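Why run this: before we spend reagent on co-expression, it is cheaper to look at a predicted model of the complex and decide which construct boundaries make sense. The entries below are exactly what would go into the expression plan.
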Amino acid sequence: MFVFTVRRILQTIPVLIGVTILVFLMMHLVPGDPAQVIAGEAASEQTIQQIRERLGLNDPLPMQYFNFIINALQGDLGTSIRSGQEVTSEVASRFWVTLELSFYSMILSVFIGLIAGIISAVRHYTWVDAVMMIIALFGLSMPNFWLGLMLMQYFAIDLEIFPVSGWGSPEQLVLPVIALGTAGAAIIARMTRSSMLEVIGQDYIRTARAKGVKERIVIYKHALKNAMIPVVTVIGLEFGTLLTGAVLTETVFSINGLGRFIVESIQARDFPAVQGSVLVVAVVFILVNLLVDISYRFLNKRIDLN
Amino acid sequence: MSNDANALKISDLRTSFFVEGNEIKAVDGVSLTIPKGKTVGIVGESGSGKSITSLSIMRLIKSPGQIKHGSIAMNGEDLLQKSEREMRKIRGNQISMIFQEPMTSLNPVYTIGEQISEVFQVHQGLSKKEGRAKAVEMLELVGIPSPKERVKQYPHELSGGMRQRVMIAIALACSPELLIADEPTTALDVTIQAQILELMKNLQQELGMSVVLITHDLGVVAETCDYVAVMYAGKIVEYADVYTLFNAPKHPYTVGLMQSLPRHDKDQEELNVIKGNVPKPDEMPAGCRFAPRCPFASEICINELPDLIETEDNNKVRCWIYSDKWDGNPEVNVADDYKTARSK
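The model came back. Tokens follow.
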């Protein structure tokens, strides 16, 4: 188990290097001169040269990349052009909001998805199953920003139960979390259902029944642990989707999260801010997948990296 | 015969599957007694209803299947009248089952120790730790070397033969009165087959249990069974003790099965086979179900379904040839004439 974990962690290193190179190049391949943007339209050639010098933009690319990595490792992602503040601290404060939003949405998705999936599988081909899967299909098909707007219209404007926008108080959580978590719940429900159905038909489930084990334990102990293996993959991927999908939800509900920060930074050509926040999202995505793979191993001892 | 001499008495069992409004009679009026301490073999082709019979005894028939009629008496009680809760106490405790596929019959995400231990936890209320100690004992009983290390292993770390031994350990954990083995050796190679059958035989004598052995392998039957029931299309067509059956098979189907065995003592150009296929459930013949494939079939066979007829040597056979109503050649001798009749 230990060897497996260490080996899996080491495998993320090349991926991380690849991601940093892409993020770094992104800034340099996009047309437009960052120094020009920083200095403004009317700046003199001399000012632009000075800014170039200060940002190290005259160094050869590999040298710049090297500096970028060294600084990033020390937690320095540069200075935001827009606000003049450290990108690290700007990203950190907003990242927390997005993480919180994604985390609650994830809990909602997993909770509802698993329960609905298991019930559907156990009672498959009954009306319960049909109703659940139709709801899931709707949940899957609705774009989260549209769902967000509808929830806002009905619950915030018409019924005035929840606040329209903002972030922080528990009431402000409800609508954005539902808007963001619904699609995930639908995906997890469908995945759990099909995975459970496949497992319930297996010979070892018949063996468990033949042992005199209670049906409830057959489902939750013998079937669910096997059925969870593909579901965990989906949950991991879904978390990544939530982090990025939060962009729209955050915009709809005026939540000052990382997604909105990225959109605004792109619009303002705030290259260090874009670079820094994309890097953070990418690294988090890689880490989540790392956790998924490690948890796999707990579920399924057959997995071996060899 | 007193009731106590039988471990199990199945009477007129009917199990059907309901698919798209059609009723498929998988088991159609099977009556069978399993004497205590004896092994009864159920033989037949795929689709003859032998596995469904065994799952019916366990009451493990799942929708769209349904046990429609009959009784299964064990210790004076009818298993078919029991509640699901009462059945759970019987499964794995008084009646156990071993399945055909050792490769897939064990749960891949739990150790074999946990899977054996579960039986003790469910039926004897033992703790995990006590169950584990018992699991080691069981592994030793079924002849798995270094059981203390093996209990911690997962099914994928074991060979097919070892896994079937683990399945036997699970089945025998609570010393059941009746063991149902559904093709326990079909998926194993020949040397392992012999070992597993030997193991089952020894444990049967040691624990004094009754065994229902479901198989399509007549060699396995000859070696292990005391009595044999031959099933065809959901019905028992012949029942006899193993010597009578092999010495004087009566039903043309049984004879056909035996003649289709490859012989090592004779030169054979080709294997004898029974022509045709088992009738499809929706195309069941009105008369004897074997009539369309039977070389002796006459008028009455096609029109009327025969009952099980008792013959002088305690053999029961579902065939018109042995009844007074027989309208075909009165001199027919199924065992001797089979080949010549078939080639006509």
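Residues 96 and 172 of chain B are 7 Å apart (CA to CA). The first strand of chain B starts at residue 6 and ends at 19. Bring this page to Monday's planning discussion.
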